[in-house]
Amino acid sequence: MKCLIFVSLFVFSCESAVITDGFRRQREINERPIIGVLSQEQSRYLHSKFPEENYTSYIATSYVDDIEKSGARVVPILIGKERSYYRELMQKVNGVLFPGGATFFNQSHGYADAAQHIYEIAQEFNEAGDYFPIFGTCLGFQLIIILASGRGPIENRETCYSFENLPLILSPDFRSSKMYKDITDEQVKTLVNEDVTVNSHQFCILDKNLEAYNLKRDWKATSYGYDKNNIRFIASYEHKRYPFYAVQFHPEKNAFEWKRSKRHPHSMRAIKANRHFMDFFVDECRKSTHSFQNEREENQYVIYNYPAVATGILGSAHQQCYFFEPRGTVSNQ
After folding, report:
1. Where along the chain is the active site annotated (predicted)?
2. Could you give the CA distance from residue 168 to residue 163 in angstroms, rounded to a whole number?
3. Is 285 a catalytic residue?
4. Which of 11, 40, 198, 253 is the most exposed place for a label (fewest CB within 10 A)?
């Protein structure tokens, strides 16, 4: 009898292990996330500093540093490419960041066109059950809503001016959001009580922009701020079904941009509070199981193929930038 009981328990234990292992595989977390960062047209200022180099797009290194600080690597995504390029690359990376900047949305084959390809492909992936996050910062924040609105001839955003550090006004139900549900009480205290979010924008998204295109059905505003004319703008939002998120401010600047005239808050509290946003996004990207074929292919695409160029010493607001030339090419060296 004792032997039979022993055998029965042993079999049950083995079956439980199989079930447990199967559950873990379904919930697999990617511990080697790689995130695509979309480049954008070179600004007039940067072009004036590098007139002979024929640079056509760039990425500020602060975005790369911010992602790496959260435990991921970066692949640059170039503008001026066919839709097939973006689809192929998105099948390899685990999410995409639309950075802030100063470019226009009406430049053919530029930042906005590339972002539209990425946004639409990401929608397809998520509809098919393929988890694929997107995060927008400042200009990218505005562009996502414009894309969600259908990107008509009239851009669905408003003029407002905020070039200062502000606290966040969190929505009353912010704890029910995906972005803020796990934020620490200490980070919340800093964000709502201190001027620690870096704002640098002349356009914004208001509640009426969500209402105008019936976007409140799919999008949830999670925090607000006030510009210099006391206009209440949305400071962060998220999609209700897809893992799409964005912030109007610049969490990457607190720790990685140092131009004195910009007066970015560099206190430890400010840095710790703003770390929440990229830590959150990278954790979302860990849920994507996309991958390159092997390490050799990874190494052909990562940002380390490009030199970081010192631009802060030339007067730029960015300490360093990665530049790409000519438009639409990728170095595999």
Report:
1. 138, 250
2. 15
3. no
4. 11
Task: Report residue 266 as tokens.
Answer: 């560099």
Q: Write the CB contacts of 51 (distance below 8 Å, at least 6 apart in sequence).
A: none
Query: Across all residues in the chain, what is the average pLDDT?
Result: 90
pLDDT tens per residue across span 278-298: 999 999 999 999 999 999 999
Report the C-alpha gap between 102 and 145 in whole angstroms. 17
Please give the Cα distance from 307 to 288 (Å, whole number): 28
97 near 137, Cβ under 8 Å?
yes
Q: For residues 83 and 118, what is the distance between their CA atoms, to the nearest angstrom? A: 8
Distance CA(193)–CA(173), nearest Å, equals: 18
Parse the chain into domains and list their residue ranges. 32-324
Residue 332 has pLDDT above 70, yes or no: no
Rounded Cα–Cα distance for residues 25 and 19 (Å): 10
CA dist., res. 313 & res. 30, Å (int): 38
Region 32-324: CATH code: 3.40.50.880
Residue from 250, 264, 290, 318 carrying the catalytic annotation: 250
Q: What is the pTM of this model?
A: 0.89
DSSP states of 84-126: HHHHHHHTTSS-EEE---S--S-STTSHHHHHHHHHHHHHHHH
Query: What are the φ and ψ backbone dihedral angles of 201, each rounded to 5 degrees?
Result: -150, 150
Residue type, 296: R
Q: Looking at residue 326, what DSSP letter applies? A: S
Active-site choice (117, 138, 160, 204): 138
Residue 264: active-site member: no
Q: Tell whether the model's pLDDT for residue 24 goes beyond 50.
A: no
* Residue 119 structure tokens: 């946004």
From 95, 69, 134, 100, select the one nearest 274 (Cα to Cα): 69
pLDDT confidence band for 305 (50 / 70 / 90): very high
